[in-house]
Amino acid sequence: MHKPLRCESAQDFYVTTDLNCSVSLICSGFELASLDRTDPRRVRFVFYKFPGLEQAVDDYWSNTLLVKARTMADNLKSMKSRLYGG
Question: Cα torsion for 40, 43, 44, 47, to the nearest 10°?
């Protein structure tokens, strides 16, 4: 698990609306702080800003982030269940 930075303001969080990026971060050991549902059309995934998180996001978008396939599938299923209540 990653060591957290002090989280006292919005700057202490990383926010994305991308489901697959979010699940990849969870698979990489980053902690989801909350799901922001203030926009009825889109859920925002809010992560604590741990050291290394921004690099993991960059690695995800550059297609170099390595996660275990089964772990990704299990976490994706769990997140969809959490999102859609199924």
Answer: 140
